[in-house]
Amino acid sequence: MKMQIKFGVLSLFCFGKVFTQTINTGVLTIEPNTDFSTLFAFDNKANGDVLHNGNLYLYADFKNDGLFTYTDLSNGKTFFIGNSNQIIEGTSISEFQNIEFNNSSNNAPFFLKTTIVVNKQASFRNGIVDGSNDAGKMIFNENAFHSETSNLSFVDGRVEKKGTAKFEFPVGDDVFYRPSINELNNAPNNIYTTEYFFETIGNIHPYASKEDSILTIDEAEYWNLTQQQGSDKAVLSLTLDKNTTPQIFFQDSDVTQLAIVRWDAATSKWINEKGITTDLLTGADYTKLVTTQVSGYGIFTIALVKKENPEPPTDGVTIYNALSPNGDGINDTFHIKGINQFPDNRVEIYNRWGVKVYDAKSYNESDKMFDGYSDGRATINRGEKLPTGTYFYILNYTKGNNIIKKSGYLYINNQ
Asked: Domain of 349?
């Protein structure tokens, strides 16, 4: 049986009277504002071209060995819908503008065995996308995003993100959504990949091999964050969830604090990447965030570390970590005493979600100071007064032949 869709050729094969597969061997074009659907497994052969500029509804398996892309920049969308397992596979990369996952079968209904690319939006309505066999990967290009992620729908496998935008990696394991977050950066060529594991890695990277400041490491879960391209050190946030994270990491203490730790292959031990903790009140499945700028990539998890005691400055640099920019001449700016001695410096400030709100080089004590307003390159709402709350600062400055890095809390009272 043959069906002509504009210049496309669609062949439906059957055995007896039962249709079993939809095979494309020509050029199938789905025009904008046009719907096309198939109840059967869709197979785009190596000599097939699919230009899906409209709405494509797939109710069974999907396989692409040819060209699967779009030519019209309108809001074409592909829907994976069903109530039984659907396999997404093929030897060629499939390009989507918008994609929706909505399958009501139990456990993980989508088996991702190929690479798919999202250029606009991925909607996780229902159903876990299982790419944990490492054959599958979901790529989000610059400005692509996702919605509706929860414990009911996420990617159990590798997710790659390209570009500068802040991005919450929609990853999890088993039936738990456990995202990590990469914050805004300044390099459009950055490419990161993240995967979450609800399992121990102590048999490979022993928890007993650690820096002295690390007291207890989360042995139940970890994230694998890699940088495929770029040189920036990411500002990373990891999530805590009482369904997966051991209870000890939710207990308050006067002598410990939460931090992100990373396995360092060069020293064969876990190192303390530090971090600030945010309690979430958004109704998300996860309940806490720990945020820090990492010094490398690889395996990360949460840990309890010794609470840092402030040390007296040895180079004359003193950081005053509170400001109330109300014009009274007292604490109107973020004051770093002695920074004038080190003009080769950079100050970055992030809000509780890890979004950069200030970025300045050659910070000083006179005309280049943070006054509670969003400013600098690659920041949100530039020129706007920031809300009262706790922020996170990173200070880097050159002292002789060394680069000194300091970070910590900054409280802004902007009322």
From this structure: 318-412
Tokens 């996170």 belong to 392
* Antiparallel, parallel or unpaired: β 77-82 and 55-58: parallel
Task: Let me know whether 88 and 220 are in one domain.
Answer: yes
Q: Which of 44, 88, 89 is nearest to 69 (CA)?
A: 44
pLDDT digits (tens, 9 = 90+) for 311-367: 555 678 988 877 888 777 778 899 999 999 999 999 998 876 667 889 999 999 888
| Count of other CB atoms within 10 angstroms of residue 187 | 13
User: pLDDT, tens digit, for every residue of 130-180?
Assistant: 998 878 999 999 989 999 999 999 999 999 999 888 899 999 999 999 999
Kindly provide the b/e burial profile for residues 332-367, where b requires at least 16 CB atoms within 10 angstroms of the residue's own CB: eebbbeebeebeebbbbbbbbbbbbbbbbeebeeee
Q: Which of 123, 94, 117 is nearest to 24 (CA)?
A: 94
Sign of CA dihedral 373, 374, 375, 376: positive
pLDDT at 397: 94
As a whole number of angstroms, the distance between CA 171 and CA 364 comes to 41
- Residue 342: partners with Cβ closer than 8 Å, 6 or more residues away: 315, 317, 397, 398, 399, 404
Rounded Cα distance between 247 and 291, Å, is 19
Please tell me whether residues 60 and 123 are part of one structural domain. Answer: yes
